[in-house]
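Thread title: Can someone regenerate the structure for this chain?

I was given the following input by a collaborator and told the matching structure tokens would be attached. They weren't. Posting the sequence so someone can regenerate them.
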Amino acid sequence: MDQQERNFVNPRKIAVIGCGYVGAACAFTLMQSGMFSEMVLIDRDQDRAEGEAMDISHGIPFTTPSKIYAGDYSDIGDAGIVAVTAGANQKPDETRLDLVHKNVKIFQTIIPQIRDSGFGGILLIVSNPVDILTYVAQRISGFTENRVIGSGTVLDTARLKYAVSQHLTVDSKSVHAFIVGEHGDSEIAAWSGANVSGIPLNDFCELRGHYKHSENTARIAEEVKNSAYEIIERKKATYFGIAMSVRRICQVILHDEKSILPISSMMYGEYGISDVALSMPAILGKNGVETKVPIPLSTQELAKLKESASMLRDILDDVGM
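Best answer:
Regenerated them for you:
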């Protein structure tokens, strides 16, 4: 049972906490989706939240009517989803994990206020490092584990599908593959189960005239892993890709799609990994995580996954979690 009494949930109400680049992009993308009839924006800079709410609201005549406003934690108790994007920005010379100590402290302020509001919906963590902060959010909130998820490697997986589609000159929606593990430097491209419309990836590559499988997959995986750093180097921040990922996650929850997404959630024995939040494929619906989906991993991929989990566990130990 959750530690706090849960309020009635309005599934068409969402709160976005943090109105920086990522939060504002998420709010804008969600407004355009027409999925939500009410959206509350929260930021420690109230003027910033009010400005973003005003700016986004001016586009309502072009989409579905909705109520968008700046508020505070007393406004989120009945929200169906709370998306947390607040946190320190990743600098060009920082890894995602360099952010951990700063952002854990921020979460120690934010999460108790969400919990104490009586919030009864799905808590979606977007802030980085997302796997660490998903674990921290669950532990601090006391919410049942199915209700606390991270955006995980949903964006990384989209980047992988795009990169493979460009390599093969094929529709990215026909590419089926996952990035798993940490959303960050130790992420793993799970090539073992990758396919294009049911055809094993290597077979499809040969169909398109590509035969250097190890060389090409290594290059693509490296490009995907480094893409965020390249974007940050060029434009100082990444926000459009993650905003579209958040929209997709919210769509799956709101419509109870039972879709399989590589979200970050708690691990208890899967692949021999426990007591850490990790990004792995899971069935997602209106109540959050329903079940993990086992995917084939090679011996090497499994070893890398366990290394990724061990590294995250060491970081959690370092911050006292």
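The chain has a mean pLDDT of 93.
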